[in-house]
Specification:
Distance between the termini: 21 Å
Number of strands: 0
Strand content: under 5%
Radius of gyration: 22 Å
Shape: globular
Number of helices: 7
Structural class: mainly alpha
């Protein structure tokens, strides 16, 4: 059974993302040019410019991935089209993450662009809608951290907690004895039923 590709959906999402991209580019062009060495805090003009650039490039990348899937499908290259479609469903890079750097309130064009992306967020999978809602609700920029030492300590604690939880969950008990997968000798892959 071959998997089908919904060209109408791809075209619709590409059009919405292109509109968002144009809005983000227009907002980026309104910002003053880079004048700092990058050692400014969250929400500074330099960080806002970086965040706006990340947003516009992320939206543009999403449009390009979708267009590639459409092109392969129209050319009759089904296997390539399926791979490109799967890639197109990946959430746009730095959307809405670029807003973490940006001064508040966000500009009207940036808000409109994020709302457009939110309309098609189901195409990209779980989490994007919630991330956009958080970005729109944020009262201040949050990146880069003001206190890097504290940030690194918090990351280390979080990582240690995650590792500890993983190891604790993986420890077998008498109720759940460990299992061993059988492997074919020399193949390096699990044995399969035949």
């Amino acid at each position: 059974m071959t998997q089908s590709i919904d060209l109408e959906e791809l075209a619709f999402v590409a059009a919405v993302m292109e509109r968002a991209h144009r809005l983000l580019v227009a907002e980026e062009k309104k910002l003053p040019p880079r004048t700092a060495d990058g050692d400014e805090g969250p929400g500074s003009p330099y960080q806002t410019l970086l965040g706006a650039g990340e947003l516009s490039r992320g939206a543009d990348d999403a449009v390009r991935r979708i267009a590639l899937a459409i092109g392969y499908a129209c050319a009759g290259l089904h296997a390539h089209a399926l791979r490109a479609t799967n890639s197109a469903h990946i959430s746009p890079r730095s959307v809405p993450g670029g807003t973490d750097r940006m001064a508040r309130p966000l500009t009207s064009g940036t808000i409109e662009a994020l709302k457009l992306v939110r309309q098609v967020s189901d195409f990209f999978g779980e989490g994007l809608r919630e991330d956009i809602d958080k970005a729109l609700a944020a009262r201040t920029a949050t990146w880069p951290p003001v206190d890097w030492t504290n940030y690194e300590e918090e990351r280390a604690k979080s990582a240690a907690t995650a590792v500890s939880a993983t190891h604790t969950a993986a420890i077998p008990t008498a109720a759940t004895p460990p299992t061993v997968s059988s492997y074919r000798v020399g193949s390096g892959s699990p044995a399969t039923d035949q």
